[in-house]
Design brief:
Chain B: Keywords: Photosynthesis, Photosystem II, Signal. Chain B: InterPro entries: PSII_CF48-like_dom, Sialidase_sf, WD40/YVTN_repeat-like_dom_sf. Chain B: Pfam families: PSII_BNR (PF14870). Chain B: This is Photosystem II stability/assembly factor-like uncharacterized protein. The complex is a heterodimer of chains A (about 850) and B (about 400). In chain A, about 60% of the residues lie in helices and about 5% in strands. With about 850 residues, chain A is an alpha+beta fold. Chain B has about 400 residues and is mainly β. Chain B has a domain of about 70 residues. In chain B, about 10% of the residues lie in helices and about 35% in strands. In chain B, the strands form 7 sheets. Chain B has a 5-stranded mixed β-sheet. In chain B, β3 and β4 form a beta hairpin. The longest helix of chain B is centred in the first third of the chain and has 19 residues. The radius of gyration of chain B is 22 Å and the shape is globular. The chains are: A alpha+beta (about 850), B mainly beta (about 400). At the A-B interface, β2, β3, α20, α21 and α22 of A face α1 of B.
Chain lengths: ~850, ~400
């Protein structure tokens, strides 16, 4: 904003060049914009909804490296749980079993389902083992002769009794079968995304197929409940459709606001039109960048629209000043009424000349603000940051080039009437402005700063309690009354152990489960340690099963339920387990320790993860970092064999973590780590931009400090509303800061002009308010309206974000109006007499 | 769970042979290092390349202190005993829990082993617990403090000069003290240990080889005694000794694998071989007044004798669930527990056994009367529970 006045009277070489290039070839410029717009339209039309499980995951995180290393062998976290509940509370009926059997078959036909990993009482990978007089008996939970869908088959009470006993022996109550036997589940897992063959999962299609299964089997006797990432994405995508309606509503409200502000249909329409062009280009650019529209990323177009409108408003403000009064709207009403306006083309040129630098600076500051989000190594955030940055960059073109060029063609009707309206508008708020101006006097300023500090202190204390991750059952993205979340609550009530899983992978040498007692003993002890951690409801791992088998080989005598030390007996206890049990890989060099947690609250996850880390460090069971001990030991064993040597290692490496809770743990970790860093980067970027444009570190501080206060208030609001800090909400505060800074920049730029002209602070502030106050107020209102509509969204995370952003935009405006002058007083002009 | 089909009757011998075969096959398949010839445990990570060697060595469980765990009373607990005014339970991972009021339990700190403890026996305030890895622990203050009297974990071949011997590290399965000095511990592969100094020194005896076949009891048919030839085979097979019991007249009886029985009428100095009228294993033995003994075990089989094993009478249990533990009640009554939370109870010698169960069902290994026999404590795979007979 430096030298704006100078720029008007005595444009620099850059200004002259830019102005000549644009206003000298107005038709060419318009033609170019039209051409690009048509092209972008074509690209934007090809945009597809694109959701991905791995996009939400910080793949570079230690835990997620484990997840990637083993997703093929042990599956990942991308599970689908389908619960079939008998409405009469008893699953032991032939119709229920028919449904269960047929549904298990149907689930296999869903796209991209990993068939080998489907589990239900009807799949052969769910087995039981029991000790009988002369050894073991093992088998499928459903006996061979139980064929509920066969013609003429009549289930007997004895068969149901057998099935129930088998279910208990197979230890699947609470996991695959409801605790009260009122229903059963089918577990399915989707094949890993990406990797070889580049599997691209169409989550919406999977969700639609799941919904079809639900429609097929839900009836008077049974209800069907489905949860899992794929279903969630489907539901969110469906909910996100309502966004289109909101978008039109937002456009309408924005137009009305602009009309009220400018009293001109043309000016209001042009601003909205330019903003829409910016959004269209951004969507086209998304496609060109190879991205799709992620349901989680639906807010970005709104944001770009709001930003484009708010900056367009500044352009209109200047344009009007020129066309009505031939310059800045300073001075008294009488004085202004005397002044004469200029023609549209000159007005547009002058507005362009004045706003080129400050507008670019503000927008570039916004760009930098969004770009800081890039430090979060999560694909979806990366996409959001890129999208927003590109969008804001496009806004520079549409608001600073397209809009003034279009304005230059604009002939306003009833010019005199509008001039009078504007004059009234200018004096309407004088009382408020003079009150606000008093805030820049030394004593009120000191009091305001003190109040600000106090609020900041308490907001920070309160905001610190901000919860990481989710607290509720189900997902925070959807409203609690959404079908998905109701299903999640039901499933977690009936199947206490099926939902939240954290798997630690134990890595060791090949055949470790038969040759290394230390490895098995460490796993077993680790499992017991974890079982004793609050929040861990059940643990399953190979040594635990091996102990039962060892007792089985000893006639079921409980006193033999221990791990044998000698390899021959150990082999006997473990060799019966196949990979489809999920307890080991093909050469048992990797064995998961599966923990079923009571919930996935951040406190629970933190406690469990801390216990894992504590154990592995104290017991020499960790190689550190992302080391894949399984691979290195396998290589060493192979090398030794080649040389004809024997190789043996009892090394064990306990790696965190897979399972849905493993993913959550990694995300929470990253969110926590990144939250503070991102804010400081953001503050730093804003400070630097202000420093560059105002050449005064204290002035930059005057602009940044209110932002800090509002950010803490934002955190406090999150605590108050129970909104957890997670991937989706992490960016809200950053976006609020990136946009909220504009107000202070516009006000301060005006103040600075007045102060440089020799006005004392209070006077300069009053002048700034008088000329930009209304524009600022309307800008905040426009931005807020753009996002406030989301509060009514079907999706809770959109509603939360709408509320948060509305809060951030409005409160940032007030903070700028109140704290900026107070800070200026004590930081910039402490000794000035009023 | 994979290929675990129904297997036929298998002795330990045969199992080991089968496993050796399987292991050699596995080695051939995997072309990995032969397990049996593998180097000792100490080489962990010694030649690890990219993966850093762990800074802490694997803590050998038999010599490591038991860890205090909040859920210990829900862990595998295998035996119950009373000492002083206190109930003591022992189990997996060196767990020893004690209770004065029989409802609040406290895990004893600093138990010097993590080996699974399988049995416990008390004389006054002196308590002994035995378990896997040949461990024997002793306490002289009703279970507050424990010392290791013996341990004998399995060693990989090469660690000692001897060949691989499954007997080495055989688990102890029961312990019995006649007084504060004289006691016995029995275990797998006919392991028999005896002490006459309260456990300061334990000596091993091959009582199976020493034992003479019992002379046919008066009126006995002789079919329950062994021929010389049978005995020879039996000696070789070294059946597990699962339990040892004493009757009120001081006679001793050992019950073991596949119906094997031994008895002694002279405080363990001399032993005689007996045989049950059933080939299955007996997991427990309880001595009563005179020479009455009840043994119980596989598939719900239980037998009672009034003459220290000369004549056996099978008790009707009406169950096929294995019986794993039991306790003596007044008037010749008995309480037996077993798989699936089964509790069998008879209040006096003449009555039949009545079945009950605890919920949630889990295999039970021990039972102890409390509140003057009105209720019971049971211990098993799900820890300690209270059982109130109806």
């Amino acid at each position: 904003m430096a030298g704006s006045i100078k720029a008007v009277d005595n444009p620099s070489a850059f200004h002259r060049l830019a102005e000549r290039a644009i206003f000298g070839n107005r038709i060419v410029v318009l033609a170019l914009f039209a051409l690009v717009t048509v092209a972008m339209c074509w690209f934007a039309a090809q945009l597809r909804v694109d959701a991905g499980f791995k996009k939400q995951i910080p793949l570079a995180h230690e835990y997620m490296q484990t997840f990637l290393d083993y997703e093929k062998e042990f599956g990942g976290a991308n599970r689908i749980l389908i619960a079939v509940m008998a409405k009469n509370g008893d699953m032991f009926s032939q119709p229920f079993m028919q449904t269960m059997e047929r549904m298990t078959q149907d689930v296999k036909t869903i796209d991209n389902v990993d068939e080998a990993r489907i589990r239900s009482i009807f799949t052969p990978n769910v087995r039981f083992v029991e000790v009988v007089e002369d050894g073991f008996a093992g088998g499928n939970v459903i006996p061979q002769d139980f064929t509920p869908n066969a013609e003429g088959f009549e289930a007997t009470r004895e068969q149901f009794a057998t099935i129930k006993a088998n279910i208990e022996k197979a230890n699947i109550v609470g996991r695959l079968v409801a605790k009260d036997f009122s229903g059963a589940m089918v577990w399915a897992e989707l094949v890993p995304e990406g990797g070889e063959g580049q599997v691209k999962l169409d989550y919406q299609k999977v969700a639609a197929q799941l919904e079809a299964i639900r429609a097929k089997y839900e009836n008077d006797a049974t209800s069907v409940h489905i949860i899992g990432f794929a279903k969630m994405v489907g539901d969110i995508s469906d909910g996100a459709r309502s966004v289109i309606l909101f978008f039109f509503l937002t456009i309408a409200f924005t137009w009305i606001l602009l009309f009220l502000y400018s009293s001109s249909v043309k000016l209001a329409s042009l601003t909205v039109f330019c903003a829409l062009i910016a959004v269209l280009w951004m969507l086209g650019a998304l496609r060109l960048l190879g991205f799709g529209i992620d349901p989680m990323n639906m807010l970005t177009p709104f944001l770009i629209f709001a930003i484009a409108v708010s900056h367009g408003e500044q352009m209109i403000n200047r344009f009007r000043g020129e066309i009505f009064f031939g310059g800045l709207e300073e001075g008294s009403v009488e004085e202004l009424s005397q002044r004469r306006g200029v023609d549209a083309q000159t007005a547009a040129r002058l507005a362009f000349r004045m706003l080129l630098v400050p507008g670019s600076v503000a927008l570039i500051a916004g760009c930098i603000g969004f770009a800081t989000i890039l430090i979060i190594p999560i694909q979806i955030i990366y996409e959001l940051a890129i999208t927003a940055t590109v969008g804001v960059a496009i806004t520079i073109l549409t608001d600073l080039v397209l809009l003034p060029v279009m304005l230059s063609f604009c002939k306003l009707r009833n010019l005199e009437k509008k001039r009078q309206y504007r004059l009234r508008q200018l004096t309407q708020f004088d009382k408020i402005w003079s009150l606000l101006a008093k805030f820049s006097r030394p004593v009120p300023a000191a009091i305001i700063i003190l109040i600000g500090l106090t609020i900041w202190f308490f907001a920070k204390q309160y905001g610190h309690q901000v919860m990481i991750g989710d607290a509720e059952k189900g997902v925070a993205e959807l409203r609690p009354e959404a079908r998905y979340n109701k299903d999640a609550v039901l499933i977690s009530e009936k199947f206490a152990l099926g939902v939240d899983m954290l798997n630690v992978i134990a890595e060791a040498q090949p055949s470790a489960c038969t040759t290394s007692y230390p490895v098995m003993e460490t796993m077993d002890r680790f499992a017991w340690h974890m079982r004793n951690v609050e929040g861990v409801e059940q643990v399953m791992t190979l040594p635990m099963a091996a102990k039962i088998v060892n007792a089985g080989w000893n006639e079921g005598n409980l006193r033999w339920r221990a791990l044998p030390r000698d390899p021959d007996t150990l082999r006997l206890a473990t060799q019966g387990f196949e990979t489809d049990s999920g307890l080991l890989n093909s050469d048992c060099s990797a064995m998961p320790i599966m923990m079923f947690l009571g919930d996935h609250r951040a406190t629970t996850i933190d406690r469990v993860v801390a216990a894992v880390k504590d154990f592995r460090e104290k017991n020499g069971a960790w190689a550190g970092g992302n080391a894949n001990v399984m691979k290195s030991l396998t290589e060493q064993a192979a090398a030794a064999t080649e040389k004809g040597e024997t190789f043996h290692s009892d090394q064990i490496n306990l790696r965190l973590a897979t399972g849905n809770v493993g993913v959550l743990a990694a995300i929470n970790d990253k969110v926590r780590e990144v939250d503070a860093v991102m804010l400081y980067l953001l503050y730093g970027a804003v400070f630097l931009m202000c420093l560059l444009s105002f050449r005064n570190p204290l002035a930059a501080l005057c602009i940044v400090l209110p932002l800090v206060l509002v950010t803490e208030l934002g955190h406090a609001l999150m605590v108050k509303l129970g909104i957890g800090l997670k991937v989706n909400t992490l960016t809200v505060v950053a976006l609020g800061v990136g946009i909220g800074v504009d107000y202070a920049i516009y006000i301060f730029a005006r103040m600075r002009e007045s102060m440089q002209a020799g006005a004392p602070l209070t006077e300069a502030y009053f002048a700034a308010l008088k000329t930009t106050g209304i524009a600022i107020f309307y800008t905040a209102l426009t931005l807020a309206v753009g996002v406030a509509m989301w509060i009514f969204s079907e999706l809770k995370f959109q509603a939360d974000m709408g509320l948060m952003l509305t809060f951030m935009f409005v409160v940032n405006m007030f903070a700028a109006l109140i704290f900026l002058p107070a800070l200026c007083r004590w930081l910039l002009r402490p000794f000035e007499k009023t | 769970m994979g290929r675990l089909g129904r297997t036929g009757v298998m002795s330990w011998r045969r199992l080991l042979l089968a496993s050796a075969l399987l292991s050699s096959m596995a080695v051939a398949q995997e072309s990995a290092a032969p397990a049996a010839a593998a180097a000792p445990a100490a080489v962990a990570g010694a030649s690890a390349g990219s993966a850093a060697a762990p800074a802490v060595a694997w803590p050998e469980p038999v010599g490591s202190k038991a860890e205090i765990m909040p859920l210990v009373t829900q862990s595998l607990l295998l035996d119950l005993v009373e000492s002083g005014n206190r109930a003591i339970a022992v189990g997996e991972r060196g767990a020893i829990v004690i209770s004065d009021d029989r409802s609040n339990w406290r895990q004893v700190a600093d138990v010097p082993t993590r080996a699974t403890l399988t049995a416990v026996s008390a004389v006054g305030n002196a308590v002994w617990a035995v378990g896997r890895d040949g461990v024997i622990l002793a306490s002289s203050d009703a279970g507050e403090h424990w010392q290791v009297q013996r341990k004998d974990p399995w060693q990989p071949p090469g660690a000692d000069a001897g060949p691989s011997d499954a007997r080495h590290g055989a688990p102890l399965l029961d312990v019995l003290f006649l007084d504060e000095r004289h006691g016995f511990a029995v275990g797998a592969y006919s392991l028999f240990l005896e002490t006459s100094d309260g456990g300061a020194t334990w000596g091993e005896r091959k009582i199976l080889a020493e034992a003479a076949p019992a002379a046919a009891a008066a009126g006995g048919s002789g079919k329950w005694t062994f021929s010389r030839e049978e005995l020879k085979i039996e000696d070789e097979s070294e059946p597990h000794f699962n339990a040892i019991a004493r009757t009120s007249d001081g006679s001793l009886l050992i019950a073991g694998e596949r119906g094997s029985l031994l008895r002694s009428r002279d405080n363990g100095a001399n032993w005689q071989r007996l045989k049950l009228p059933y080939d299955g294993s007996m997991f427990g033995a309880i001595g009563f007044e005179g020479q009455r003994v009840i043994v119980f075990g596989l598939r719900g089989h239980a037998f009672e004798t009034d003459d220290l094993g000369d004549n056996w009478k099978e008790l009707a249990t009406d169950t096929e669930l294995s019986l794993l533990g039991g306790t003596k009640l007044a008037n010749g009554g008995v309480a037996l527990v077993g798989a699936n939370g089964l509790v069998l109870l008879r209040r006096s010698a003449g009555e039949p056994l009545r079945a009950g169960a605890i919920d949630p069902a889990g295999a039970l290994a021990a039972i102890l009367g409390i509140e003057g026999g009105g209720a019971f404590l049971v211990a098993g795979e799900n820890g300690i529970a209270r059982y109130q007979p109806r």
